[in-house]
Amino acid sequence: MPLEFIGSPAMTMGVEVEVQILDAKTKDLNPSSPKIFERIGEDYKHIKPELIQSMIEINTGICSDIRQVRSDLEKQINVLKSFSDELGITFASSGSHPFARYMDRILYPAERYRYLIDRNRWIAQRLMIFGLHIHVGMRDARHAMAMNNAMLHYLPHLLALSASSPFWQGKDTGLASSRVTIFEALPTGGHPCTFETWDEFVSFYDAMIASKSISSIKDIWWDIRPHPEYGTIEIRVCDGLATIEETCSLVALAQCLYAWFDDQYRNERVVSPPPYWILRENKWKASRYGLEGEIILDAKGKTGLLRKEIERLLTTLQPYALKLGCQKELAQIQNFLDKGCSYERQRKVFEKEGMFIAVAESLVEEFWQGKPLYVN
To answer: Is the pLDDT of residue 43 over 90?
Structure first.
């Protein structure tokens, strides 16, 4: 069965951020998304419900540059903030909440979410996790598969930089990102299957539909996936970042990476996907150790410190940042390396205060200020 890829003439961007809704006093997750939609209306297209009522998605329109991404996200954040006092709620953004319990969460009343719980049961009930999704437009299906395969090599970099879920239900997991390990339990979540060509992907998709393993592309929750209806490749590996500043920096990094890949593609340098064992192992290293992970660089087992690999990558991408007008945002990635990512900041807060509510309070403050707060 043909799977039409509705291409985009330009490599435009769309960004989705899953935001936590918290009680203003206790800082526990609060099931207030229905009350939010009572105020903005369910047809407000840039703020959408999610699986649980204590989560809400904000998204951008189709953006040509990082300035538009920032403007759109700030607009939606300001909408949420406008009635937070009235509802006694506040907001935060990170891959996990530091102490909330998933069994206390309330499902959003939508048929799709009821189906997900019914089909996946306990696995889906644990999805008290929050991510950043980045769409980038692709010209056609062949271009999309080439860009998808090139980005597979850099998912550990994006995961480590975004890692913000060290705590889960009041415990330190010992991981930089626990969120990705929860997603991996889903039968169509986690590590993507790899394909050399678009036709191979279509054959896989048709078989999944025929076997009733999925009902649409939306049921594939891989770390990265083609989205034919939108004409994009969607990066889904990232934890939610704590601040608008960090979100925009990571989106800029992804945009520069795709611009670099596209140059290679135009010069007929098509990159194959990494071997599956490398894809899986590198994701584990990034989720476990964050920036201190040593990722595998080739099929012979050569390794490199992820922190150093990112530094080298930033040098490579500087000309693309200049061309795309995101030099400032790309340069701010150095702050992740020098001053610490969210998983590091959260642990420092807990070490200093000894209370998980203090971690939640720090995440709220960062979200409202839009910039990371560094703990001495």
So the answer is: no
